[in-house]
Amino acid sequence: MTINDAAPTIVGTSHDRTRYTNAMGPRGVIGIMTPGPNVIVENEMMDMRPPGVINAVDRYYVPNQPISEDEDWAIIMRHVAANLGESVRRLNEALIDHLILGMSSQSFMGGVKGSFALLEHLQETSGVPVTMGAQAAEAAFEEVGAKKIALVTPYYPIIERHAASYFTDRGYEIVHIEGLKCKSIIEVASQTPERLREAVLAAEQHRPDAILQLGTNLRFAEVAATMESELKKPVFAVGTAIYWKALRDMGIEDQYPGFGSLLERH
Fold this sequence. Notes:
8 strands, 4-stranded parallel β-sheet, Rossmann fold, alpha/beta, 2 domains
């Protein structure tokens, strides 16, 4: 038997779109698209599931590119753009109820115009509501009335500029960006709670109303909850913000501890 690299077109293929209640996820099936190297977001969002909700995860191809300059991140983002469509196609076969883009950087590319164009495209191709990092973060800021924000990212400036453009054009003042300049996507996942705490404290020196971490492959959900308690202000993990907004948009209002104030109190 020969195995082809590309998905073949097989004569006689059809697609049953009859919807049934999923026995393990009667409250909803959430499809999550994430890059192949992003092991953190997949597992954090698994931990965030409330009873009766399940996740269907698709890991689209993105190389674990060595990163030493802006262009290396640009190459990664070109791979993302090339592979999102096939990821949606695969998740559509699970008849998902909601789609999550589990990579925050792509949601900011092209600023406000690019972000909302991507959101509309994903909604059209998936046929279900979509949640992305940019809009989820904005919803979190609105929830707490934050206008002056600081960002903690694993990125190089090329990605940070797109995020800054989005938030500035949406009326927020960015007082600081603490970029870790990680050397690969896999190195992003190796950042320790101690290193992330240092980054949050560096951002806090600029006195923002709220601190947002970008980069879903940073293990930040628990760090955010701890730092909120220590700093007495909102510290949001973007992965948590995405999952929180997806649940709320699905009409699921469960509140539970362990992931910070968004899921515990909002």
